[in-house]
Amino acid sequence: MAKVCDFGKEIKKRLVDLDQSQEWLIAEVAKDTGKYFDSGYLHRILRGEIATPGIVASICKILELSADRK
Predict the structure, then answer these.
(1) How would DSSP label each residue in 3-66?
(2) Which residue of 36, 59, 66, 70 is surrounded by the most CB atoms within 10 Å?
(3) Domain for residue 34, yes or no?
(4) Is residue 69 in a domain?
(5) Which domain holds residue 45?
(6) How many CB atoms lie under 10 A from the CB of residue 63?
(7) Mind listing the pLDDT tens digit of every residue in the chain (70 residues)?
(8) Eight-class DSSP state of 68
(9) What are the angstrom distances between the C-alpha of 24 and each of 3, 37, 69?
(10) How far apart are CA 40 and CA 29, in angstroms?
(11) Nearby residues of 3 by Cβ (< 8 Å), 6 or more positions away
(12) What total number of domains does the chain contain?
């Protein structure tokens, strides 16, 4: 199993707090950005492999997380 980065852990914890699924987040990000976003893309973000600024900002907005990312 691939290791989840700190931002990925924040995402997963927040989804539990909101009682929402990753599928819900994927749909919300796609709707918010108007860009292609799927489970593979989210998985790569959760592992810290990619951090597309617009997608990360959308995730932070939707989950109400701090947008201060490196």
Answers:
(1) PPPHHHHHHHHHHHHHT--HHHHHHHHHHHH-S---HHHHHHHHTTS---HHHHHHHHHHHT--
(2) 59
(3) yes
(4) no
(5) 6-63
(6) 18
(7) 568 899 999 999 999 999 999 999 999 999 999 999 999 999 999 999 999 999 999 999 999 998 775 4
(8) -
(9) 22, 12, 23
(10) 14
(11) 47
(12) 1
Q: Could you tell me how many residues make up the chain?
A: 70
**Which DSSP category does 69 fall into?**
-
- Token pair 């995730």 is found at 59
**b vs e for 10-26, b when ≥16 Cβ sit within 10 Å of the residue's Cβ?**
bbeebeeeeeeeeeebb
In a domain, 47, yes or no: yes
* Sign for the pseudo-dihedral over CA of 4, 7, 13, 19: negative
1 belongs to a structural domain: no
